[in-house]
Amino acid sequence: MNGDLERATPETSNWEPWLVQYAPRLLLFARQQSRREADAQDLVQEAVLDCWRRRPGPQPPPLALVFATIRRRAVDLARSAGRRANREAAALDELPPCWFDSSPEERERARLLEQAMRALPAIYREAVTLKLWGGLTFVEMAEALQIPPNTAASRYRYGILELRKLTRDTLA
Q1: In angstroms, how far is CA 5 from the centroid of its own chain?
Q2: Phi-psi category of residue 57: left, alpha or beta, with phi > 0 → left and psi -120 to 50 → alpha
Q3: How much is the pTM?
Q4: DSSP state of 60
Q5: What is the pLDDT along the chain (172 residues), one digit of tens a residue?
Q6: Which of 20, 40, 68, 132 has its CA at 20 to 30 Å from residue 120's CA atom?
């Protein structure tokens, strides 16, 4: 985007008052189309930039075109988020291969543990997974998650505590 702004010329100066006038309306519409404030802001920015690229010149596009672009991008965003959620849910449903012959009791225990892992908040689940199944140190976990090592350790500890609560009655 910065490249486009740097190429702006005096003849494109009509865009600035247009943005000042219409940006609040566009953002309000984008908020209704998305679930998060950050997504709404991104939708407005991307739609305005898209319209700028399609109509380079001094005159901003018709307002309806920008609203339509926001709506179209919001639908695309929702579809992409839905597909991602479906992929993640499908991945959770797939059971890992059984490495060893196990008794029915052990398989039931594994199933209950898997249910408990699914019930964990995502930040705890990823910390427990990286530590126990990934074999990472807290420093390596911190690098992978882009968080401080102490935060990685805390998330792991809280995840284990939550797993104990979730499995206290069923795995005892």
Answers
A1: 28
A2: left
A3: 0.45
A4: P
A5: 444 444 544 355 687 888 888 888 888 888 888 888 999 999 999 998 888 888 777 788 888 888 888 888 988 888 887 777 777 776 665 555 554 556 777 778 878 888 888 889 988 988 888 888 778 789 888 888 889 999 999 999 999 999 999 888 776 5
A6: 40
Q: What is the DSSP string of 71-140?
A: HHHHHHHHHHHHHHHHHHHHHHHSPPP--S---HHHHHHHHHHHHHHHHS-HHHHHHHIIIIIT---HHH
**Residue 51, token pair as written in the block:** 């319209």
As a whole number of angstroms, the distance between CA 81 and CA 145 comes to: 21
Give the span between the Cα atoms of 33 and 74, in whole angstroms.
Answer: 6
- Spatial CB neighbours of 14, under 8 Å, sequence gap ≥ 6: 58, 59, 60
